[in-house]
Amino acid sequence: MTTHLHITAWALALILFLIILIMGKGKGAKILQMILRLDYLLILYSGGALLSWYFKNVSGAILGEAIVKGLAGLWVIIALEMISVKKTKGKPAKSWWIQLIIALIITLILGFGRLPLGLHFMS
């Protein structure tokens, strides 16, 4: 259940992020940015619940990978926020785009490919 909540929350975050980028400046973009920030809280809550499951049920390399995935997930949230803020202010965000891509790749590989609570566990 928590895995579904987590995937839904970050999918919503990516959709809101893209809409904010398309909208640019304006009142609508600011409202969506506030909704995105609330979604970050849902991502953090569900991600924390998943991480606590790993602390209780696994050890060794898998636990280390879960911690790295959690840190990379935080990195993704920070990069999304920095990109959206810089774009709405009309400032360049190239370094944050690079960081977003790196963090997102790490997070997706660990979340879906390596850790037991990924998609292969849900089916």
Instruction: List the helices and strands in order.
Output: HHHHH
Structurally, the number of domains stands at: 1
Tally of individual helices: 5
Strand content: under 5%
What structural class should be given to the helix and strand makeup? mainly alpha
User: Quick one: how many beta strands?
Assistant: 0
Low-confidence stretches: none
First and last CA, distance = 12 Å
Cα gyration radius (Å): 15 Å
Give a verbal description of the structure:
With 123 residues, this protein is mainly alpha-helical. It has one domain. The chain is built from 5 helices and no strands. Helix 1 packs parallel to helix 3, helix 2 (27-57) runs antiparallel to helix 3 (61-88) and helix 3 (61-88) runs antiparallel to helix 4.
Relevant terms:
single chain; 123 residues; mainly alpha; elongated
How does the SSE layout of this entry go?
Elements: H1 2-23, H2 27-57, H3 61-88, H4 94-114, H5 119-122
Structure, briefly:
By secondary structure, this protein is mostly helical. The chain has five helices and no strands.
